[in-house]
């Protein structure tokens, strides 16, 4: 994909308003739904096995986020992935805190193995832990730099047949064909909880309209975050301005701002 | 009710600060509580059967919202409705995503049948699905116009002995005695998640002080949303400005802005 | 602690970025995480018994908030407290709605009894109910003034070996050695849901760096809330401005604004 195609995806998404089904964590359900609405998608937060087969039959994709994992939710997630597979839908996995506990690492790997069509979006520590390397995580924050996770991402691409997005000071998108580095965004973004979760959900919105590399979501969230941060005194106003910016963003602004290189 | 009575309800609500008990969905718990606080009510989010009998004995009303339904929460909701009935409290039902899955449709109808004193607040697709007509829903968004749901609402009024509020470009309030059309609000409002859920909760706050038609909540949220949207660049600032506006709103502004007609 | 030490704690916190593990309620998970990030801590929201032993081994402290209590979460909370005890970590208890239901009162006392190292942060009605006196609560709001809860707090200090923080128009910090009164904050703060929950979580962040009286958190949230409210038209903008203010706050501003006296 070139810059033009990436930026154009924004219009494609808005024209088709895809339904993004989210099995996600309690912390970010509200702002994830708002980010999806602002970019032009149609979010639903659902998790019951009693309706997931139906949901997956008409969903655009399935977002799985393990941020507040427990023994009640794990079978719900696995059932949802099974239904996504049956219906040929892409699963977007956010392995929140992978490496911070054995439970999170194991469940992340189990979901990654089970999903047929898969995109993984995590921070460096999570991707490194998912690949089985020694990561330095503390809670859900990354202590590793995104640059140090590219090899781990390549391992995940091969191991799970996935495309992998690493968020950080620089973002990376790693596919079987190429590795891209994106240098938008802003250092204040990690001070808003669930910024990565929004990144994952928006990756799902683009996957639902056929953009399954993760490039468009990464580009657009990076550009929007950068614009929003320029107007923001702190993380409270950043969260608000990000939603406004996602809503107002146009193809031309994405093209003009996007810093993308193949590496 | 005439305009003057509707607007005056705002003062009545603030004077008595009613306790609104919410069994609601994970996505909107935070902004629903904030909307209730801003308008002058006292919200509590509670769901445990171990305390619901006590809660219903001193609650002003019971709000039931099925947005993130599952087999653990369904019996909690039904138990809460039973306790509301025993204590003579009004139930306000938000059938989120009714029509989007069989589960949601069936549970919505079950709750509507069980509640003795009932107000239903939904979008057009939800009300149409609740009435058993063929609705066009996608996830939790309405694809039907609110105008097309008035007959379905009339069916629900008769079937469930309820007052029914339909949210949309125009809002409708349908009771056994009359049908009202309200034309406030703003097209940006559906881009904030849980705007309908706040509408439902505020309907509960007014029901708790004796205004059980749904008119006052619909009028006041419409006027507040309209004022807030005029100051907002996008849905992020709209969410913030809506809370500020609800907090600052006075009876005179509601009267001056309200577009209400009986139809 | 004198004013200088209290204000200086802010720098200590930022330098060490402690990991605060929160077993908290659905309503406030998002804004609590954001408040912790803004002040400079590293939050994780986790509750599964399958990972809590691991979490407590590297956590800075444990925050327990009973705001949306049920029979599924109670054993999770008790297990987490047990693990905190084993690892010598301080537990910060927020007895949300203590007194509003028998369940909440009993579980609050059970947790308070079980925790070895304990700080309690509540409003006046909650602290009075926890101490077994007759409280006037309605839902989760306090109807009692904070001044009237000081004796109840002293009882809790003795009964549970805890330090106790009472939030209200004046805040009080009660320890075995002394009682402090703090007069910052703003009357608009109770109109933002979860403001007390953020207070509790920030108390945890300071406890994780050795400030276990509750004074630093109370001082800093009071000063930040006061500054934020001065810029805010209503509770929507107050929530946003509070996060910005916590992020930007410096030691000098805390020192200049803090109204603290021993009583």
From TrEMBL, chains A, B, C:
<dbReference type="GO" id="GO:0004417">
    <property type="term" value="F:hydroxyethylthiazole kinase activity"/>
</dbReference>
<dbReference type="InterPro" id="IPR000417">
    <property type="entry name" value="Hyethyz_kinase"/>
</dbReference>
<protein>
    <recommendedName>
        <fullName>Hydroxyethylthiazole kinase</fullName>
        <ecNumber>2.7.1.50</ecNumber>
    </recommendedName>
</protein>
<comment type="similarity">
    <text>Belongs to the Thz kinase family.</text>
</comment>
<keyword id="KW-0067">ATP-binding</keyword>
<feature type="binding site">
    <location>
        <position position="167"/>
    </location>
    <ligand>
        <name>ATP</name>
    </ligand>
</feature>
<feature type="binding site">
    <location>
        <position position="121"/>
    </location>
    <ligand>
        <name>ATP</name>
    </ligand>
</feature>
<dbReference type="Pfam" id="PF02110">
    <property type="entry name" value="HK"/>
</dbReference>
<comment type="pathway">
    <text>Cofactor biosynthesis; thiamine diphosphate biosynthesis; 4-methyl-5-(2-phosphoethyl)-thiazole from 5-(2-hydroxyethyl)-4-methylthiazole: step 1/1.</text>
</comment>
<feature type="binding site">
    <location>
        <position position="194"/>
    </location>
    <ligand>
        <name>substrate</name>
    </ligand>
</feature>
<keyword id="KW-0784">Thiamine biosynthesis</keyword>
<keyword id="KW-0808">Transferase</keyword>
<feature type="binding site">
    <location>
        <position position="45"/>
    </location>
    <ligand>
        <name>substrate</name>
    </ligand>
</feature>
<keyword id="KW-0479">Metal-binding</keyword>
<keyword id="KW-0547">Nucleotide-binding</keyword>
<keyword id="KW-0460">Magnesium</keyword>
<dbReference type="InterPro" id="IPR029056">
    <property type="entry name" value="Ribokinase-like"/>
</dbReference>
<keyword id="KW-0418">Kinase</keyword>
<comment type="function">
    <text>Catalyzes the phosphorylation of the hydroxyl group of 4-methyl-5-beta-hydroxyethylthiazole (THZ).</text>
</comment>
């Amino acid at each position: 994909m070139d810059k033009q195609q990436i930026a154009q995806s924004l219009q494609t998404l808005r024209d088709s308003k895809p339904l993004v089904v989210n099995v996600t964590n309690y912390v970010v359900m509200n702002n994830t739904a708002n980010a999806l609405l602002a970019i032009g998608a149609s979010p639903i937060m659902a998790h019951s096995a009693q309706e997931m087969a139906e949901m997956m039959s008409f969903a655009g994709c399935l977002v799985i986020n393990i941020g507040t994992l427990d023994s009640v939710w794990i079978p719900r997630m696995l059932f949802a992935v099974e239904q996504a597979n049956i219906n040929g839908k892409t699963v977007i996995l956010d392995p929140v805190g992978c490496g911070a506990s054995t439970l999170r690492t194991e469940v992340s790997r189990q979901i990654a193995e089970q999903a047929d069509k898969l995109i993984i979006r995590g921070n460096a520590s999570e991707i490194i832990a998912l690949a089985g390397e020694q990561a330095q995580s503390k809670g859900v924050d990354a202590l590793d730099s995104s640059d140090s996770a590219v090899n781990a991402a390549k391992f995940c691409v091969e191991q799970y047949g996935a495309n992998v997005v690493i968020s950080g000071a620089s973002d990376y998108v790693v596919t079987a064909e190429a590795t891209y580095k994106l240098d938008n965004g802003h250092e204040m973004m990690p001070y808003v909880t669930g910024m990565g979760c929004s990144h994952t959900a928006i990756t799902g919105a683009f996957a639902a309209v056929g953009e399954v590399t993760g490039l468009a979501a990464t580009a657009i969230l990076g550009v929007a975050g950068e614009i929003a941060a320029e107007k923001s005194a702190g993380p409270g106003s950043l969260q608000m301005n990000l939603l406004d910016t996602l809503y107002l963003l146009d193809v031309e602004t994405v093209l003009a701002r996007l810093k993308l290189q193949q590496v």
